[in-house]
Design a protein that fits this description.
single chain; about 180 residues; alpha/beta; Rossmann fold; five-stranded parallel β-sheet; two-stranded antiparallel sheet; about 30% helix; binds adenosine monophosphate
Length: about 180
């Protein structure tokens, strides 16, 4: 994987910002990667190739940076896109899961009718840190009667062990830091 020029380019376009949004957090700023068309295209292409064997029917992505990866990935895979949002943002009837994250606690919601029962779902976010957000999204998927068949992230902060929190759901990660 590390020999893939797309991985090398993407890694060079992630900026580390110390003490954001709180002291002690080393924030992974993906905006330079998004601003570089070749790096962004390479990222979505890499992720699409990596998740295709999971044969998802739908991509579920997490507000808000997850949308930046989930929407183009859904188009590349030829499947639909369903948003997971912070409370109070979705207009129709919603289902909610509360969770802890690296800096604070939060909750996520989905439209209760967003997934076909039994659908094979790929959960997508930009970064996996503790894994709490993605695990909450997987729980939402299950509550709606669908199956999380995998989770894909642009970047994993490996020291925080988020991938293990999602087990046995397989995770696909382009960059491990
Ligand atoms: P977690 O639930 O701890 O896995 O946190 C994942 C969510 O928080 C993702 O939506 C990330 O966008 C964001 N996040 C957490 N830690 C960081 C970090 N160090 N750099 C960038 N984003 C982060």
């Amino acid at each position: 994987m590390s020999q893939d020029s797309r991985v090398i380019l993407a890694r060079s376009r992630v900026r580390q910002v110390a003490d954001f949004p709180k002291p002690g957090i080393l924030f992974k700023d993906i905006t330079p990667m998004l601003a570089d068309a070749e790096a962004f295209r390479g990222c979505i292409g890499w992720l699409a190739e990596a998740v295709r064997p999971l044969a998802p029917d739908v991509v579920v992505a997490i507000e808000s940076r997850g949308f930046l990866f989930g929407a183009p990935l859904a188009l590349a895979l030829g499947v639909g896109f369903v948003p997971v949002r912070k409370p109070g943002k979705l207009p129709h009837v919603t289902t909610r899961v509360d969770y802890d994250l690296e800096y604070g606690s939060d909750a996520v919601e989905m439209h209760s009718d967003a997934l076909r029962p039994g659908a094979r779902v790929l959960v997508v976010d930009d970064v996996i840190a503790t894994g709490g957000t993605a695990r909450a999204a997987c729980e939402l998927v299950r509550r709606l009667g669908a199956e999380p068949v995998g989770a894909a992230f642009f970047l994993e902060i490996a020291a925080l062990g988020g991938g293990a929190l999602l087990a046995p759901i397989p995770t696909v990660v382009m960059l491990r830091d």
